[in-house]
Design a protein that fits this description.
287 residues, alpha/beta, seven-stranded mixed beta sheet, two-stranded antiparallel sheet, globular
Length: 287
Amino acid sequence: MNETGYTEAVETARDYYNSADADTFYFHVWGGEDIHVGLYEADNEQLAEPIAEASRRTVRRMAELAGALTPATRVLDLGAGYGGSMRFLAEVYGCRCVALNLAEVENERNRRMNLEAGLERNIEVVDGDFTALDFGDAEFDLVWSQDAILHSGDRETVCAEAARVLKPGGRLIFTDPMQTDDAPTDRLQPIYDRIHLGSLASPAFYRETLGRLGLAEMHFDEHPDQLARHYARVREVLIENEGDLREKGVSGAYIERMKSGLTHWIEGGQKGYLTWGIFVFEKGRGD
């Protein structure tokens, strides 16, 4: 542990996402509102569909799978980034949302965007670590997460905390870049190095772990092709906007590392070592 009380893995992710380079890149290239994998519609992979549109499509699809959403629904987003998903749920369904995220720089952007949207009363932005949630048992109707759990060095604890704060009958809905159940782990080392961890989760990991915690799988909307497609699209936009990013102060070293890192994700997806999709689990009612 360090002076913040965060584990080394959490502090590494926090430092990264708080950096000026990362904040500028994710806000201006990855989509700003939604910094997660998108669902692309066009059949032709060469068509340049906007990242923001594909990413928002993921949010809408997750909302469809989340069950009945009303102004009474209390939602916790684990790893909320800039908070686009919670703004969508608050604006469209009136949900009461908590956006928990470890990067204070992203959280400040999130709060400003909530104010600009007039949604600050519906959304509480919390600085925090999703392995140690400062909430009581059974406080939330819905726990939501998008492409964030992979950054944790203790994914079992993240799952346990999500299950703990869910009400009986509540749902956990999340996406995560995963290795396939039979992936050759030696081929994934460049990706492990990229996230500064020794593994990725797999569908089998989530099924086993959440099953032990009393959550039943309701749905897995699996789209392994979208993972490689999304990272390829992000890399294209990065290259197209490289000059503008440099003018905004993003270092050349960061841009080159990002190009290389994105390539590893693209190749892992294309070779069938990686998968991605929307998981939905429901907590038992105990009756």
